[in-house]
Amino acid sequence: MSVNIAVNSKRPVNLDLRTIKLPVTAYTSILHRISGVILFVAIAILLWMLDTSLSSESGFEQVKSCLQNPLAKLVIWGILSALLYHLIAGVRHLVMDAGVGEGLESGKRGSQVVIVVSAIVIVLLGVWIW
Amino acid sequence: MVTNVTNLSRSGLYDWMAQRVSAVLLAVYVLFLLGYLICNPGLTYADWQGLFAQNWMRIFSILALVALSVHAWVGMWTISTDYLTPMALGKSATVVRFLFQAVCGLVMFVLFVWGVQILWGN
């Protein structure tokens, strides 16, 4: 009993992220989460686009002309960027689940690859949209 | 072992698996749809409507919608249990977290039904 209390009292509780210097792996991790939340919100926008575009010929044209709007293009670019970042970072998770890239160095390299590949894909998306 | 009454399956391992399986399905669906849109720059309503009128596409889409519901729930649940904690919010954490999870669950359910209506309603 006394051992339990002693162990419990020594448990570190500081997980205040503002006081911890984050490695690159932490940034890709938190970006994965942020992009996930963005995508959760974006589901409604994407479903509205699907609903309207499938409802009728005029609905299809409405979505098409809506996508000519620069602000709408920016929003779609943002959503698709979040989607592809989330996908690429997710593939890294699956690779790590298979036991590859789990070490300290290989993990950092994996994160760097995710950032570089995502940046390239996001730029290409921008080119496609504009 | 983590036992939490609000997670999807009351088993962290099963949630982990569900997250991975749904992720793979969603990745395939997203890449297919993006590929289709990129390969068909001059897409017409007839093409678009014809794609979603096919049974295999409807089944594929419903599958993706189910996967999305599972994936979104596991993801939002994970985030809420990580950040909406007593350390961050004090005594009200459990209530806030439960309400947040309830809203996420309700929103996802409504989106799911809406998605089914889009695919099979008309």
From TrEMBL, chain B:
Transmembrane domains' residue ranges: 20-39, 59-79, 99-120
Biological or metabolic pathway of the protein:
Carbohydrate metabolism; tricarboxylic acid cycle
Location of the protein in the cell:
Cell inner membrane
The UniProt entry's GO biological process terms, in alphabetical order, are: cytochrome complex assembly; tricarboxylic acid cycle
Q: How does it sit in the membrane?
A: Multi-pass membrane protein
Cellular component GO terms held in the UniProt record: plasma membrane
Give a Pfam family name. Answer: Sdh_cyt
Q: Does the keyword Cell membrane apply?
A: yes
Q: What is its main location?
A: membrane
Q: Does the keyword Protein biosynthesis apply?
A: no
Query: Where along this sequence does the record place binding of heme?
Result: 71
Q: Which cofactor does it need?
A: heme
GO molecular function terms noted in the UniProt entry: electron transfer activity; heme binding; metal ion binding
Give the cofactor note. Answer: The heme is bound between the two transmembrane subunits.
Give the keywords, sorted.
Cell inner membrane, Cell membrane, Electron transport, Heme, Iron, Membrane, Metal-binding, Transmembrane, Transmembrane helix, Transport, Tricarboxylic acid cycle
Q: Which residues bind a ubiquinone?
A: 83
Q: Which NCBIfam families match?
A: succ_dehyd_anc
Its protein name is: Succinate dehydrogenase hydrophobic membrane anchor subunit
- Give the source lineage, highest ranks first: Bacteria, Pseudomonadati, Pseudomonadota, Gammaproteobacteria, Pseudomonadales
